[in-house]
Amino acid sequence: MEKPVRISELLLTEFDEEMKKTRTTLERVPINKPDFAPHPRSMPLGKLAPHVAQLPAFGFIILTTPEIDFAKADFKPVPFESAAQLVSVLDEGAAKTRSALAGLPDDAWNENWKLLMQGKSIFDGSRFLAYAKCSSITLCITGRSLAFICA
After folding, report:
1. Are 101 and 61 in contact (CB under 8 A)?
2. Phi, psi of 104 (to 5 degrees)
3. CATH of the domain at 135
4. Angle at Cα 54 formed by Cα 117 and Cα 25, nearest 5°?
5. Quick one: which of 125, 91, 128 has its CA closest to 106?
6. Is there a domain that residue 138 lies in?
7. 4-10 contacts, C-beta under 8 A, 24 or more apart
8. Residue 96: which domain range?
9. CB contact at 8 A, 78 and 89
10. pLDDT digits over 97-144, tens only?
11. pLDDT-based confidence at 40, cuts 50/70/90?
């Protein structure tokens, strides 16, 4: 009898493809346009591009912790220095997340995961839903789209 495919194995292909696309976008970010925003209410490129570069690390948090409270987390935005620096940040976070994703057993996807702000629930559901809704993949696609408009 054939061994069933693990959930993580099914997700790795999509993860790799999205990280490749995000990497390509960050490689093309015009570093000389940090104040550019496609709309007055949009995040300027100098904040958006570093944010997109850091997003894969959020997937690692979802895959390796039971919860995160943004009010207690120690997040430090990376500076907007160069495309190479942004790609390095992306690659580091993507490598950690990919490793965690590859090693996650199927039963861990059903575990509860919470996203909090000052102890108040923003998300409370299965790790699978957290990864699907709040993961680095979903957020990178959105951020990459906005960064592409700026590039």
Report:
1. no
2. -75, 120
3. 1.20.120.450
4. 135
5. 128
6. yes
7. 6/105, 6/106, 7/104, 7/106, 7/109, 7/128, 8/101, 8/102, 8/103, 8/104, 8/106, 9/102
8. 7-150
9. yes
10. 999 999 999 999 999 999 999 999 999 999 999 998 876 555 555 555
11. confident
